[in-house]
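protein under study:
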Amino acid sequence: FWESNERAYNIGLDLRGQNALKRFGCWDRVERCTADVTGRIDWVPGAEEPRETNTSQTRGYVTKIIQRDRLAGCLLEEIE
């Protein structure tokens, strides 16, 4: 199930999504399967180097990402 990489959709969990999962009591299970996204990299045409932007510093939290199928699996485990 997890090995199929034909299509992998990543879901970004911002502070609102993280808080919702905490309210439902399933954040701990989901968080174990996430990765941190502290910003972005922009490739500007004509620039020699990409520009890195750390959005966690300005937002005050770290966005988490998780594969859509893995999130569904975590939530299914939680309700079973």
